[in-house]
UniProtKB/TrEMBL annotation:
Xref: Pfam families: TetR_C_1 (PF02909), TetR_N (PF00440)
Keywords: DNA-binding, Repressor, Transcription, Transcription regulation
Organism: Actinomycetospora chlora
Positions of the HTH tetR-type domain: 2-62
InterPro entries: DNA-bd_HTH_TetR-type_CS (IPR023772), Homeodomain-like_sf (IPR009057), HTH-type_TetR-like_transc_reg (IPR050109), HTH_TetR (IPR001647), Repressor_TetR_C (IPR004111), Tet_transcr_reg_TetR (IPR003012), Tet_transcr_reg_TetR-rel_C_sf (IPR036271)
Lineage of origin: Bacteria, Bacillati, Actinomycetota, Actinomycetes, Pseudonocardiales
Protein name (Swiss-Prot/TrEMBL): Tetracycline resistance transcriptional repressor TetR(B)
Amino acid sequence: MALTRDDVVDAAVDLLAEVGLEGLTLRRLARDLGVSAPTLYWHVADKRALLDHVAERLLADQWRVSPPAPDQDWADWLRDRAVRQYRALVAHRDAARIVAGNRPTSASLPAVEQVLGTLVDAGFSPADAFSSVQAVGNLVIGSAIEYHAERERPSDGPVGPDGHAPAPDARAYPHLAALAPVLAEHTAAHDHEALFRHGLDLMITGLRARLATPA
């Protein structure tokens, strides 16, 4: 059976889960597929092109975009979409790093058009709609990268009997010391989606204000 681009992308996604982004090379991918490396160039021009297709596959559910329901607020629709993207990126190893800097493939253009059109219909100019989508996307990707980095970070420094780092000196760092009980209950790794949602809410509040303010 002839090798297809879908075969190549499927194998790349599996290899990514096994060895991470650094281990995902065209040479290793060709070996796993049982073909020569030049054979892959019939399907992907280079590794960056391959990663664009892998990014599309990892976010496949996100490219099937439905417009807001008739009674759904554009901001609620945008927030829901961003949260689903965040959850998709934290669910796959190195997914956020791959999506960062990727370019839409032809298969994803209808979804991009739908998102931009939704914001334009809400009252944004095309330029503002594009910038807003980019800004929200950057928040999603950056938060997902931080999530994985936090999970991979080894525990360091002394910890107290409760398993948490000792509280800072209240005389030198009064504000940090006041936060100690909160940080003890909600570590960044444990409650990272809440932190992401906080930033997303701030951004959407800003978008609402921008839309309500005449240019």
